[in-house]
Amino acid sequence: MRSYAALATLLGVLLLAPATAQEAPPAAAAAEPVAAEPAATTPATTAEVAAAATPTPALATASTSPVLDRADLDAWLDGFLPYALERGDIPGAVVVIVKDGQVLLQRGFGYADVKERKPVDPETTLFRPGSVSKLFTWTAVMQLVEQGKLDLDADVNQYLDFEIPPRDGAPVTLRHILTHTSGLEETARALIISDPAQLPTLEQSLKYWIPTRIFAPGTTPAYSNYATALAGYIVERVSGLSFDDYIDQNLLQPLGMQHSTFRQPLPEALQPLMSKGYKSGSDEPQPYELVGPAPAGSLAASGADMGRFMIAHLADGAFGTARILREETARQMHGTASQLLPPLNSMMLGFYQTDINGHRAIAHGGDTQWFHSDLNLFLDQGIGIFISMNSGGRDGASGVIRNELFERFANRYLPGPIAEGEVDEATAKAHALEVAGRYEVSRRSDTGFVALAGLAGQAQIIANEDGTLSLPMVLGVNGQPRKWREIAPYLWRDVEGNDRLAVKIEDGRVTRFAPEPYAAIMVFEPVPWWKSAGWLLPAFGIGLGALLLTVLAWPVSALVRRYYGTPYKLQGRDARAHRLMRLAALAVVVVSFAYLGFLGTMLSNLELTAPASDTIVRALRLLALVVLPIGALVALWNLGVVWGGRRRWTAKLWALLLALGCLSILWVGAVFSMMGYTANY
Questions:
Q1: How far apart are CA 172 and CA 234, in angstroms?
Q2: Is the domain covering 5-413 a CATH 3.40.710.10 domain?
Q3: In the chain, where does the domain assigned CATH 3.40.710.10 lie?
């Protein structure tokens, strides 16, 4: 999966974005671990990190491309990955490459434990592949489909002991879930925590709150951890086994994945093998992450074990003498199931398409707070490549590295033509102006309190003078916004790469857009005027600033009057309005900053999504429910008093500004679900 650092940062709170007895084939023997030097502890600039991952200058051709073998892979990786990890301040990584049922390469780089100088062992060191875990959940679902125990197109309620409400009269199906088109809004409660006592069971996490269906089923890709957890719960109920037991017996054991588990906390026997997770290599190690919706991302696995999983899927479900899927089921799973923004990448049944250089590939990426991974399968060539890193690194370096690893690998060993095209300059400029504007991502929360993050996270398309498009939140390896040049009507290609961006026009207006590779799992839709950050963010900021100045001026003016012996001149209604407005301003400021502070801290520290924070969330929403409307009413009353009196024009303008400020904050609170009394998010 190609990764864009800024977008990944925005979605980080919601993404786990974009997841043992059979003998392995003889060639699957572990390579000797290669320990690179530990990550640098000296500061590195974004440019230095980017320099470690500069795109390959030119594609190889089919006649000149190097032979894909262990010797060339070793040399190629040694020339790229150790330096990239060092510059990115990432302690360790594992890379596994398989072909035709054999392991070509599995290597560890750097350290699993920096303090103990413990190198990454690709055979036994466990990493957290995040949402790559979803591929195991999807495979489990397809096993039960081929057994006739599940129907992809049946209402999921027939497999549940609680109800998922319909939307527009249509139910959720497993096909919707596997293609991320269930229409469910995103959730974040208990997403990633470290305290086992705070970890809800799978059943508890699903029944605590059923997220709202914000899209009609099958119409809009909106990546969903909740829906994935729902699929895992269905596996439990239909199989009669716990999700962990089912995965152990039907996937991990048949594949010989002895160094892998979904169980949380990590089983005692595997704990010494687990890599530490780091914010960056120069930081202290972080606690082991517990994923609330376990089927969506709780896997811990060695690189070698992930190689076995890739081999099985590349062989249409077969691994040695074992088989995890029938051939026809595997091909159904790998075939195109949903393409809602053609001609961009499609969503299969669980995998998403990542074609490159004309070669068919399917993939899944995964992120926890500390681990960042990517798995790609070139189906026609029988090639799989997996990487996992134990830190995001400096300035989102892990995203750049896994992107470049995939593209460099494809350009070196699987060259091919890049689709070209051209649109005349006048048309390109007209189309660029037509699509310029603000958009919101389909993968979002609308009714949970984290909806407020969507205000700052709206995307903006900018039309450049030369007819190209820019998306400021999507950055290239140089840290600058990527540019797209139109190659066909309403289809753009990255001027420095292969990724495309498409816009859908219906009835003469833009209805959605997406850049690859995100089109398969989420799209961006025009923001309605009433929730546009274009005016709401300035209004919110100015209003909050005016209220804050009012609060700060209150004691200052009192001290100045006392110092100079100046009497308080206001009387009657004017005095009451003045004092009450200051109290209202103080209350609104305190609630607003408390809200923003808690949400900002939660986005950077997912530990705060634990159920222990529910009391804080309820208190903040309840306070907002009381304070914001009352503050607005007081501000309007104060405005009427001031304008109806004989106050100076400056006082009247300030009263107007305070009223507009309180109203804008109330508007934001209402639109982005700041107000309420539940801890549903």
A1: 13
A2: yes
A3: 5-413
Q: Would strands 372-378 and 352-353 be described as parallel, antiparallel, or unpaired? A: unpaired
In eight-state DSSP terms, residue 642 is H
pLDDT digits 0-9 by tens, 591-624: 999 999 999 999 889 999 999 999 999 999 999 9
Answer whether 535's CB lies under 8 Å from 566's CB. no
Distance of CA 386 to the CA centre of its chain: 19
Q: Mean pLDDT lowest for which of 46-60, 73-87, 478-492?
A: 46-60
pLDDT class of 256 with cuts at 50, 70, 90 = very high
Q: Helices 533-564 and 572-604 sit at what angle, rounded to 10 degrees?
A: 130
C-alpha distance from residue 527 to each of 354, 447, 494, 498 (Å): 28, 16, 24, 28
Helices (H) and strands (E) in the chain, counts: 18, 24
For tokens 């289809």, the residue is 491
Structure tokens at 160: 């549940």
Contacts of 32 (CB under 8 A, 6+ apart): none
Averaged pLDDT, 26-52: 36
Structure tokens of 128?
A: 């957290």
322 burial type by CB count under 10 A (0-12 exposed, 13-18 middle, 19+ buried): middle
Return all residues near 149 (Cβ < 8 A) that are at least 6 apart: 238, 239
Cβ contact 181:221 at 8 Å: yes
DSSP string covering 221-268:
-B--HHHHHHHHHHHHHHHSS-HHHHHIIIIITTTT-TTEE--SSPPG
280 in catalytic set: no
**Does pTM top 0.85 for this prediction?**
yes
User: Of 3, 131, 398, 664, which is the active-site residue?
Assistant: 131
pLDDT tens-place string over residues 231-240: 999 999 999 9
CA distance 583 to 580: 5
Could you give the CA distance from residue 665 to residue 671 in angstroms, rounded to a whole number?
10
Structural contact between residues 40 and 86, judged by C-beta atoms closer than 8 angstroms? yes
CA atoms lying within 13 Å on the CB side of residue 632: 16
